[in-house]
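Section 5: illustrative case.
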């Protein structure tokens, strides 16, 4: 049956394709075809496809030697680095299930996810090991494999790595060394993936932006399909240079910035974490062509005082995700990367990031995140959740397709709440226009009820971003005796405007540009907004902070 978005489907992208092998075996193919092609570049240290493939086989065999059995969960607790890529692919080849842990996590967060997933083997960066040491006795961890960023750095780096990369943490009692695992293990080819549609590849924990994280069960089929679909959609090629600074532990960075470029035979420029000045230098030095990043990363890059000295004309494709991007920010990005196609994307851990909604190349519609990629997407009414709404009507975004998770790990009740007749109920609100383009207006719980009207935070934020002094903005609802709720804006000003722009200036700007019931009545200036490890603004924390105002003793 013809879909609304068919007329805008990119002509070079197949609407269906046959998936014949797991993700890991695409890497093996490139190692055979072009063994000397560079796969990873890490501050000046290059790793070829042949070297990467052998390291992956060695790590997989090493895990099995340690007693890893099919279906065992293995945690990765590290920043972006070659060892993350090797560990990720090696766990999959060994038949294990990857559990990616946010490197910003502390004690309680680590205990929760490691315990919930049943992780018994953990691969950890040396600089982060002290956090594991604090909780090791409380968990059933049998093996801890330690590695350091410095192990894959050249003698002379092309630009400075983070400070923790240069520190020599030394060895830790009761742990195993990542280098020793690779050195002692067999390089024999191995792939323990037998049933792509049922064997789990990942327990990808939700970001916790709305509550307790849950492990989305992603199969090898889901992961491989999402990765191949991404490569097709963005026309990734073996001569692409992809920027790998978006966190690999997060599903967007994992699928779009790590896996998809590698199955395409391209280069991934691995940066351990996002530092705007180092990122700008890496783009210029390596002539990056492709980057998908959180909107907040683009905002931070644009704030660099010496941005003009870097050449970003190398980009052919820049895609934002995690939050809507304003036209003002897009226009600024277009100024520094004039040859790039700018697009947006929308996805979740539950749909393996890809397979959700993405801007079709050469047919971007401003204000919309794109058209359904490989999922069927509908907008359902909020009352019953069963009525497919008409064009431009706001409801809940639901989707089903080849990348949607099997369910939440050991949480049948929560699974039943979001998976209904094969449809994933996302909890996000949006609309679909007559052409099949989708606009995300916020989460169901974020809608602000003002004087009987529904106010969507993104509508207010869009107006705030039009102000030339505003770098970042987030809007939440706060109690109001007369209106029920009223919008409050949290604003980060551009550095040069701080101290010059007042709350009244922002309120007047809004008053002149939006209906009375929509406009915020309060503005709070912030040095920064709370963000997840993937760069998504955590409005939940702003709501909690606002609720606690005045309660401190």
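Designed sequence:
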């Amino acid at each position: 049956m013809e879909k609304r978005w068919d007329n805008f489907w990119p002509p070079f992208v197949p609407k269906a394709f046959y998936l014949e092998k797991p993700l890991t075996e695409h890497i093996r193919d490139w190692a055979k075809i072009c063994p000397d092609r560079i796969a990873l570049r890490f501050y000046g240290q290059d790793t070829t496809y042949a070297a990467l493939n052998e390291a992956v086989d060695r790590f997989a065999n090493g895990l099995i030697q340690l007693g890893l059995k099919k279906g065992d969960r293995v945690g990765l607790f590290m920043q972006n680095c070659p060892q993350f890529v090797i560990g990720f692919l090696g766990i999959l080849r060994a038949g294990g299930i990857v559990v990616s842990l946010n490197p910003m996590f502390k004690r309680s967060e680590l205990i929760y996810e490691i315990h919930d997933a049943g992780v018994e083997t953990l691969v950890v960066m040396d600089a982060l090991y002290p956090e594991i040491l604090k909780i090791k006795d409380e968990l059933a961890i049998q093996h801890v494999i330690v590695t350091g960023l410095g192990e894959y750095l050249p003698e002379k780096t092309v630009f400075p790595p983070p400070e923790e990369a240069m520190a020599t943490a030394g060895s830790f009692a009761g742990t195993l060394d990542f280098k020793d695992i690779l050195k002692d293990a067999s390089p024999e080819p191995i792939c323990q993936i037998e049933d792509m549609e049922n064997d789990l590849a990942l327990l990808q924990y939700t970001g916790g932006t709305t509550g307790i994280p849950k492990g989305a069960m992603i199969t090898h089929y889901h992961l491989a399909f999402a990765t191949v679909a991404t490569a097709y959609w963005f026309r990734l090629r073996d001569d692409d240079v992809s920027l790998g600074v978006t966190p690999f532990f997060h599903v967007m960075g994992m699928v779009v910035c790590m896996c998809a470029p590698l199955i395409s035979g391209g280069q991934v420029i691995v940066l351990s974490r996002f530092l705007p000045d180092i990122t700008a230098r890496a783009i210029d030095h390596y002539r990056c062509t492709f980057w998908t990043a959180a909107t907040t990363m683009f905002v931070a890059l644009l704030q660099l005082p010496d941005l003009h000295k870097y050449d970003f004309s190398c980009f052919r494709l820049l895609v934002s995700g995690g939050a809507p991007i304003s036209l003002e920010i897009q226009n600024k990005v277009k100024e520094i990367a004039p040859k790039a196609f700018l697009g947006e994307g929308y996805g979740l851990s539950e749909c393996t990031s890809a397979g959700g909604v993405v801007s079709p190349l050469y047919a971007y519609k401003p204000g919309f995140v794109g058209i359904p990629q490989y999922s069927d997407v509908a907008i359902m009414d909020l009352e019953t959740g069963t009525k497919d709404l008409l064009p431009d009507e706001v409801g809940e975004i639901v989707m089903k397709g080849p990348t949607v998770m099997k369910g939440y790990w050991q949480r049948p009740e929560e699974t039943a709440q979001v998976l209904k007749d094969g449809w994933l109920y996302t909890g996000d609100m949006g609309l679909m226009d007559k052409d099949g383009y989708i606009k995300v207006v916020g989460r169901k719980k974020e809608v602000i009820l003002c004087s009987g009207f529904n106010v969507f935070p993104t509508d207010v934020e869009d107006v705030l971003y039009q102000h030339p002094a505003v770098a970042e903005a987030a809007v939440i609802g706060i109690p109001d005796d007369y209106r029920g709720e009223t919008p409050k804006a949290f604003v980060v000003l551009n550095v040069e405007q701080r101290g010059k722009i007042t709350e009244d200036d922002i309120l007047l700007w809004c008053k002149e540009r939006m209906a009375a019931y929509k406009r915020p009545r309060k503005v709070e200036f912030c040095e920064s907004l709370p963000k997840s490890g993937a760069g998504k603004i955590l409005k939940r924390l702003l709501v909690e902070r606002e609720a606690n105002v005045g309660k401190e003793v």
